TrEMBL record:
One of its GO terms (molecular function) is transferase activity. Belongs to the ApbE family. The keyword Metal-binding applies. It holds the Pfam family ApbE. It comes from Sphingobium olei. This is FAD:protein FMN transferase. Its cofactor is Mg(2+).
Amino acid sequence: MGTNWSARTVDPPADVDGIITAVLARVIAQMSNWEADSTVSRFNRLPAGQWMTLPKDMLTVLNAALDMARLSGGAFDPAIGHWVNKWGFGAVTGNIGADVGLPSPWTCIQVEGDRARRTADVALDLSGIAKGFAVDAVASALRAAGAANFLVEIGGELRGEGVKPDLQPWWVDVEPPPGLVVPVLRVALSGMAIATSGDYRRFRHIDGRRLSHSINPATAAPIKEGVASVTVLHDSTMMADAWATAITVMGPEAGMTLATRHDLAARLVLRTAEGAREYMTPALAAMLD
């Protein structure tokens, strides 16, 4: 899925590498747009209107993604795959679909039971939530194998369980956006997850502009320059991942207002002409006190 993973285990079960890679292989086989035979790739090739039975993991992620789309007013949209490709951030180059102009691609995805279908020429891209799900799935597999103390990371999304050998929690420093001076955000992960979305991880420069990989579904284009990073803590890595994406697209005012309304622990760093401007929800401020 175009990223790396790591895991630190205090009490590793036998064949810990095999346990982790088996989980990740399952997620890739279902939700990677970079694999032509993955479930999501085959789903996107089906004629509009044709139903497909989805495996359990992908169904879980898709339902969560559609819930986040509704909650965020479409700022998080799992069906913008054609636009991701158009702007050069997807598995293929160029816009291959006919969905430009659709105001809310996610509304063209229907789920009934364990089946789903596209009602128009849109393409699922679950990259804004699938990494978080994969972290949770690895953590679940490690717990099932008897591990109680570990830290799992995939592409900057992390989940900690238990404690380190010195009985300290898993302390994590959030990476600051390059070129900006912001206070160090250090959090303890114990039964907690953290996800960060940033414009410095995947971007392109075109005509002097920095184009973020985060696509605004309202404009079918990369978000405007400004939001450097969004960090969200949650008990679900999947939801932390999705929330970080949604807040990034919504921006400091609307995004952080929604995060505060839902009592999320979140921080947004904005690039300005004067430097960094930091926004923090009350829930995160209370956690850091």
